[in-house]
Amino acid sequence: MEVLRPGALTTVQDAGRPGYAHLGVPRSGALDAAAYALANRLVGNPPDAAVLETTLDGVGLRAGSAGAVTVAVTGAPCTVRVAGRPVAWGAPVRVPAGAELEVGRAESGVRSYVAVRGGFTVPPVLGSRSTDLLSGLGPAVPPGGAVLPVGPAGPDPVGGADVLPAPGAPAELVLPLRPGPRADWFGPASLAALWRSAYRVSPASNRIGLRTEAGTPLARARAGELPSEGMVLGAVQVPPDGMPVVFLADHPVTGGYPVIGVVPPGPALDAAAQARPGVPVRFVPSC
Q1: Which residue range forms the structural domain that includes residue 281?
Q2: Residue 240 carries which DSSP code?
Q3: Residues 252, 128: one domain?
Q4: pTM for the whole structure
Q5: Does 125 share its domain with 253?
Q6: 149 vs 240: CA distance, rounded Å
Q7: CATH code at 273?
Q8: What is the pLDDT of residues 187-245, one digit of tens each?
Q9: Which of 29, 64, 83, 151 is most buried, most CB within 10 Å of its CB?
Q10: CA-wise closest residue to 167 among 47, 279, 74, 88
C-alpha cells in the first residue's frame, strides 16, 4: 500500500520486541494494545501482525495494483472513506486495487489503528516490525510516497466483532497505581497529594511517556540521586519538578529518577494511549 498522506505521526507497530531490555532495547509496540488486537482480529490476522498507528489526523493510503485488500480501522473513532465514499469504522472493509483509503481525524482519543489482511510486512528488527521512536530501531516513519509491503492472507477468516470497546478517551483518566519500588523516597504528605491531586495530561506527552501537569508537585523525602536502574512499562517516575510521568511503550530501559509506583498493563494504559492533552488524570491505589 502506498502512503499518500502520512499524517502528523504514523508508525508501523506490532506486539513489540520484549526480552531485549538487558541490551538497552525498549519493548515498543502498539500503545493501545486492545485496539491493536481488535484491528488484527477483524481482518483475520495473527495477533502479532504489524499495523499502522496514526496520531490525531489519520493517514491516507492507496491499495496496490495487485488486487483488493481488506482493512479495518480501530482505536480513536474517525471517518473512514474508500474511493471517496464513507465506509464503516471498526469493521472489515474491502479496498479495491488502486483505490484510496482515507482515515480521517480522530473525533476523540489520539491514536487509530489500521490493519490490513496479511499485515504490513516491513523487514523485522530483533523479531519485531515496530518503530521505536526513542532508540530509532525498526522501520522509519513512512513519508508520503512510501510503499508498505503487505503479506499473504493467513488461514483465519475475516470476521466481525461481537462487542467493540468503548471508543475514545474517558473524560477522566483514572490510573491504578501499585506503590513502589521507590515510594519510600516520598513522605506521607507527598503520597497523600498523589492520591488527591487532579493532574492533567501535558501536551509534552508522546509514545515514550504520558507527562502530567497542573497537580501538586511531589516532594522527595530524601536528598541525593539514585543510580540508574531498570524501568518497566507503566512505571511512574517523578523527575525533579515533582510531576509524575507514566512510561509508555517507547520508554527508556533505565532511569535515575525515583519510581513512586507502577500502573499495570491493561485497560488503564490503553486509555492513557488515547488521552488528549488537558484530560484530567487521577491516580488511585492498587494492590
Answers
A1: 173-285
A2: T
A3: no
A4: 0.95
A5: no
A6: 45
A7: 2.40.100.10
A8: 999 999 999 999 999 999 999 999 999 999 999 999 888 999 999 999 999 999 999 99
A9: 29
A10: 74
